[in-house]
Amino acid sequence: MYVAVKGGEVAIQNSHALLAELRRGDPALPELSAAQIHAQLRLAVDRVMSEGSLYDPELAALALKQAAGDVVEAIFLLRAYRTTLPRFGYSVPIETTRMRLWRRISATFKDLPGGQILGPTYDYTQRLLDFALLAGTPVPPAPRAPAATTAGLCPGVLDLLDREGLIEPQPLSAADPEPIDLTREPMRFPAPRAARLQNLARADEGFLLALAYSSQRGYAHTHPFAGEVRFGSVEVEVIPEELGFPVSIGDVALTECQMINQFAGSARQPPQFTRGYGLAFGHSERKAMAMSLVDRALRAPELGEAIESPAQMEEFVLSHSDNLEASGFVQHLKLPHYVDFQSELELVRRMRAADTVQQSES
Amino acid sequence: MLQDDGIAAVLTAPSRQTWMRLLSRAPLQMLEAYLADLAGAQPRWLRRPESGLVMVQGRIGGNGERFNLGEVTVTRCALRTDPERVRCEHVGVAYVLGRSARHAELAATADALLQDPLSRARLPTDLLTRIAEGLAERQAAQDEKARATRVEFFTAARESVGEPTEPPPS
Amino acid sequence: MNAATGGTPLDLNAVGPGFSDPPLASQAVFRAALNAFARPGRIQRVASDAPHPSGAAPAAAALLLALLDPDCTLWLAPRLAHGSAAAWLRFHTGCRIVSELREAQFLWSDADQMPPFEHLPAGSEFEPETAATCLVQVEALGDTPGWRLQGPGIERTQPLTVRGLDATFLAQWRANHAAFPRGIDLLLCAGECVAGLPRTTCIEG
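The joint structure predicted for all components is written out below.
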């Protein structure tokens, strides 16, 4: 039970002022602009957009600035802002096969149509601190290689397996049903895969990463391969009612992961590969990969697998994935609980007093 | 999808879809330089610029059933042009990613004028070409920089002794 | 805006502007609607600078412009459905026009085309809030002695005279009132005036 407390208005105002001063830091140093954060801390901006579930780099950069770099706090700010905006509608489904690529790799096929494009990646860095950055040396432009006009566009790797019938088909009903939207309807269990993916797409990266890791260490039956990871930009199209035709209104950066999993087959299905899917705003590779592993783990009932591990437990995963909810519930313990605690204190004292009386009587 | 419209197509007979796609991606400074005078101060609003959300849908596995990925900010408006500047009765509409009301206003102004051959003549002839060229340049830069990181992985043979393990010529 | 359908395109040339300052105007109109339901039968003036479509009482047009959004469904009586009102509301509010009464969250009708109350969504015991809100255009509203209204929001009795409703109205209203917590709510509109009749109000003729 919560009981309202009064007072502390001046203290709270002063706390806000102190917060602002510490956020600004040493005034002798130039102030960071949101544009600088957007340009130079792009991966932090992407994480805020992905878990804030709102693609707007400028707002995400502003949120990071205001939150003094606290990513979860920035996500909270972005989610709060989002509630002030009207919803215009839904986009035409994006086509990730038409992504203009920055990066596209496959761990399953070394030679593939379109080639392996490393793009900007930390994968092959030595993880040695670069002290030159302390001095702020200028960065030379990245090398360019002539590209065919369609270089950015290439089909997915899983199509290769699909053509041979070695991977489960991707069901697509003619009705193309409208998916559940968790921003409008609450999650219900068992949840359809579309609802699970929407939940995972905005889930906390750390939580997904730990679950994905647990599934690889044996807490689920997965034996995954990264079929394809791609990062690039896709067009967003809408069909405004007043126009009646699709209009392309801008590009968003996305990371997509197609995870391939071994599947021994069942009474109904031959041995084949199965799929796990990850898709996230921005350059969010760890997130998209973890998401695809957890997506696959959560498909256990559909594939007739025993549910034994946390990553397979739908209600456990989907109810605890949102860092806004998690952070709110954990941190609310800081708020005044004076009355609850007094009553518990009273209870413990009374029980102890009763114990003492009993002992002295016996 | 309109991704591969060449500049030539834009030059000859652009469709409304084509010019709306280009206008949504034009740098704001370019639109200001080309359109601020024509837009004037008093557009006749049918819908003033408003920012809101569009839920982006993806497909499971890239090509399966739809799911809701997350939202983007979008700004839209609808107007007729300022009669003091241009007489044009067509309604210009803009939908633009982000929260720039001015971008939406200028894009809608161009959309209104482009719908009518008479008022189209009032627009600078190279507006769409310039936007398309800028967009093509940005895309070429991305494609070429990505292309420079293209790699040919090769598997080093483990069991065979004496076999050459040189990479194949690229 | 829906990826699956796209819908019939609107003819923007036939659509007039909405409020010149949507946030402030909608708040003012929303306040009038709130007052109308909080003080049943007391006539509220609805101020709006939005040019209303033909056939629309200015108060009704402004109320719908302020109350509807893309989550709302609206049923229009034939005369209004044939005018420019539907396109105007679709464009400015994003509402969905429905042809089935049972799908309607809002109804808009002239008094003479109002469907029988028993055909309208009246909500359920569990979800009485899903009942329809009906905007009914009447000829005139006045506060000279006529009906005597009683119920929540009225201290003793509230007088109201309404011109243009047909003779069956009072009997229909009694049945609606008796079904509480189920039942529809009415906003009677004439010119720039509106009077609310929530399902809790009892009318004596």
